[in-house]
Design a protein that fits this description.
The protein has 95 residues and is mainly α. It has one domain. 46% of the residues lie in helices and 6% in strands. It is built from three helices and two strands. It has helices at residues 11-41, 66-72, 77-82; strands at residues 46-48, 53-55. The protein has a two-stranded antiparallel sheet with strand order 1-2. A hairpin with a 4-residue loop joins β1 and β2. The radius of gyration is 22 Å and the shape is flat. The relative contact order is 0.08.
């Protein structure tokens, strides 16, 4: 466990502040998604603002459906378990 850099005396305010930050991030993420849509819908490859330039990048992405491959090759649960790695993850969820 990492050492605590700051001693927190009022955890209630910390939880509320984190929740507020998450709400702001969510709202900004939605706004960014909408603005990206407007730029893509414009049909332009590149647009310049006063401070920033936006470039629309088209790319093909490949992904492998490992679940379907396992089914088709009839991989046993033992084989899947032997090739599965568990990692310990610590997260904070605020609702």
């Amino acid at each position: 466990m990492k050492p605590k850099l700051v001693e927190v005396t009022n955890l209630v305010s910390v939880v509320d502040e984190l929740g507020s930050i998450n709400e702001t991030i969510s709202a900004l993420t939605e706004k960014a998604k909408m603005l990206k849509g407007v730029i893509i819908d414009s049909g332009a490859d590149s647009l310049a603002g006063d401070k920033y330039t936006a470039s629309v990048v088209h790319a093909d992405r490949n992904s492998t459906d490992w679940k379907s491959i396992c089914k088709k090759l009839k991989a046993s649960r033992q084989m899947i378990t032997a090739n599965t790695v568990m990692k310990h993850v610590v997260s904070v969820r605020v609702s």
